[in-house]
Specification:
Strand content: under 5%
Radius of gyration: 32 Å
Low-confidence stretches: none
Mean pLDDT: 85
Structural class: mainly alpha
Number of helices: 17
Length: about 325
């Protein structure tokens, strides 16, 4: 989509895809930056104390990714940009269907009963959820006579929710298209992953379906059961699915996920060789420090005993009570 837009603009000065590209990229930026930031935090929590430590690389990655939620466009504003385009396409599917891109044609589609067991069924379920949210947001927007005031004060949250529901649908469609061209074994692993993505998303984001009672209690329960089954199916392939992304050690900068996999040796080498806090002989330092503390304690106790045994000295100080207390100390 982006490349097609650049090609049309550069070769033909054709800006027909500019609005589409802007809307999708706005929503994608908002969705992906939120997800990336949250995903790093999920990884950190999953790693326990190691994840909290700087040597895991996760605190640095979190620090790098979190500002992207605000940088280059604040995410709420960007979601509203996509919401505006969704409302436009909702109108076009009725009045100008030839101007509606394939990614938005679901807004005019009629859907049958929900099928939560297949990729295409989940795709349609996610699309229907988004469609109902867009329709609900549009009805709320036009329910107020002043559209500008309605956009700013009444329908804003519904518009953002509708926009946030589109990008997962867009992701799922692209995911399914990519899977079709893979080998049998790879296709099976990616199909399970796509099913988990769609199932997990619908389980947590079914508000559009609930608005029109389009999903039953039994189907909601099925989503949880299906998610648990898919997690068990994916677990044997989980490491391979991550490693195939090819993240380099230079990118992750972590001791707990190195390319060669020797985690504990890396952690030991870092602690013994690279950590500046361990450059000194800790044992000798502790012994020397203990000796100094004992000498200071004996010196202070001797001074207290001398002062407290000389009344004339005690009378010159307002801290006599302090000396008596200190003298009773062991």
């Amino acid at each position: 989509m982006v490349q097609d837009n650049f090609k049309l603009v550069n070769t033909k000065s054709d800006f027909s895809l500019l609005g589409l590209t802007h809307a999708v990229l706005s929503g994608a930026k908002a969705s992906y930056t939120y997800f990336a930031s949250n995903a790093v935090e999920w990884c950190r929590l999953s790693c326990g104390g190691h994840g909290f430590a700087h040597y895991s690389g996760l605190p640095a990655i979190y620090f790098d990714l979190t500002p992207n939620i605000t940088l280059e466009g604040e995410n709420t504003i960007l979601n509203l940009q996509l919401a505006r385009y969704l409302l436009k396409m909702l109108q076009y599917v009725q009045t100008k269907p030839e101007h509606v891109h394939s990614s938005f044609q679901f807004l005019g589609q009629e859907f049958g009963p929900l099928d939560l067991t297949t990729l295409h069924g989940l795709r349609d379920s996610i699309a229907l959820n988004c469609k109902e949210l867009v329709i609900a947001a549009s009805l709320k927007l036009i329910s107020h006579p002043n559209l500008r005031e309605s956009w700013d004060k009444k329908a804003g949250m519904d518009l953002v929710r509708a926009a946030q529901s589109f990008i997962p649908y867009f992701n799922f469609v692209q995911f399914v298209d990519v899977i079709e061209n893979k080998s049998a074994k790879t296709k099976q692993a990616l199909t399970n992953l796509a099913l988990l993505y769609g199932t997990s998303y619908l389980q947590a984001n079914m508000f559009g379906l609930l608005l029109k009672n389009l999903i039953s209690n039994e189907q909601i329960q099925f989503l949880q059961v299906q998610k648990e089954k898919l997690l068990n199916l994916i677990r044997p392939d989980a490491l391979s699915l991550v490693e195939c992304q090819g993240f380099s050690d230079n990118t992750l900068k972590t001791l707990i996920a190195p390319y060669e996999g020797d985690i504990y040796q890396n952690m030991y080498d870092f602690a013994s060789k690279d950590n500046s806090l361990n450059k000194k002989d800790v044992a000798n330092d502790e012994r020397n420090q203990s000796k100094i503390m004992i000498i200071h304690y004996q010196l202070i106790k001797t001074i207290i005993i001398v002062i407290s045994s000389t009344p004339s000295l005690c009378q010159r100080h307002d801290s006599y009570d302090f000396l008596q207390t200190a003298q009773q100390a062991p």
